[in-house]
Amino acid sequence: MSIQLQDYQEVAGSGVIEELRVLADRVAGRRMQHINSTSVGGGVAEILTRLVPLLRELGVEASWDVIKGDQAFFGVTKAFHNALHGKPEEITQEMFEIFRANTEANLRDVNFTGDVIFVHDPQPAGLILRKREIGRNWVWRCHIDVSAPQPDVWNFLRPYVEQYDAAIFSMPDFAQNLPVVQFRIAPSIDPLSDKNKALERSYIITVLEKYGIDPGRPILTQISRFDRFKDPLGVIAAYRLVKKRYKCQLVLAGGGAPDDPEGEAVLREVQEAAADDPEIHVLLLPPFSDLEINALVRASTVVLQKSIREGFGLTVSEALWKKKPVIGGAVGGIKLQIIDGVTGFLVHSPEGAANRIAQLLGDRRLREKLGENGYLHVRQNFLLTRHVKDYLLTMQALEHPRESVVYLT
Ligand code: UDP
């Protein structure tokens, strides 16, 4: 897929590209490096897959590296992830040791090329230990909801985070009492990627046929990794309540991520819960199923993201961009994207979700209104071009701290 910078003018507005060029010029010759824990699966990989090429199109020397880790390490970091999101986890000294040992190995392996190094999420956070030796500007980019973390894990992570020059959180609620500069940057979607671009109706129908989904009946869809925080069982419970009154089908589509070892067990739970109903389609999709995911969302009557914890939830913006009414759990970054009753509905339980699904299935005009509002909200706030601008401004603020940062729009 070769997307050019100019292609964004049509969707994001002509002045936007000009502005990005000016900002990119200001960091000319400086290298921006991103480091995370997986190249596929999950929102961070999704973002970097599009952010880095677009920065490069602008002439910025952007690069992306992925740390290594074995199953034991990713088991530990998944438990840390859950605990930082506030779900109680039993954390042992041995787990901290596994984290430290893996950090040491990656400190040896990773090539630190950036003048500004953005380290994403807790898994690679320990790489900051290299700063003492090589200097540079280091930013910890946190994508998860750390507003109420389990103290033992946060106390372990905090001394690493405090060594960074700055931290980035997705929304103000996540900001921490830290002795470093904090920026707030919301994630984004790429409107031109295979995941989000316009599709022919004929292709959409082909995808429905492939998975045995009936185009003539309402389709409820949730696209997510198989993760308990995404509450797939809650979605099934809501669907069953709706099903008593409305004909409809449920699509639960997702894949795994190499840094998420819990996926298989959750998938099994979901398959068991869905086994008695042929109209619940549990689809395990391989990586790079973007066109099919795009088609499934475009074919949907209502899209759900009924998370019980969430950093941002890119899937919400992906559906709003397609003018779909979205029902989301009232948690984390979903609250940035869904303005309750305006761009979708926020819910707190399967029953709440069922009520909203039933309301939407019975009211086409409401579905259209929310979808239209949602599309405008995403265009204004959650497109890749805005995200690139925020990274360029952050880089400028760190590299030239004495110059005032000028917002052009
Ligand atoms: N996704 C995907 N394939 C899947 C499941 C999810 O490509 O099988 C994508 C989804 O479209 C979204 C991202 O992965 O772009 C998930 O990001 P989100 O912020 O919603 O959740 P995370 O997985 O990071 O918790």
Any overview of this molecule?
The protein is an alpha/beta fold. The chain is 44% helix and 14% strand. It contains 16 helices and 12 strands. Helix 2 (14-26) runs parallel beside helix 16 (384-399), helix 4 (71-84) crosses helix 5 (93-109) and helix 9 crosses helix 14 (350-361). The longest helix is centred in the last third of the chain and has 18 residues, at 364-381. The strands form 2 sheets. Strands 2-1-3-4-5-6 form a 6-stranded parallel β-sheet, covered by helices on one side. Uridine-5'-diphosphate is lined by residues 42-43, 46, 195, 223-225, 254-255, 285, 289, 293, 312-315, 318.
Bound molecules: uridine-5'-diphosphate
Largest sheet: 6 strands, parallel
Distance between the termini: 30 Å
Helix and strand content put the structural class at: alpha/beta
Low-confidence stretches: none
Specify the number of helices: 16
User: How is the largest sheet built, in terms of strand order?
Assistant: 2-1-3-4-5-6
- Sheet-strand content, in percent, reads 5-15%
The rough form would be described as globular
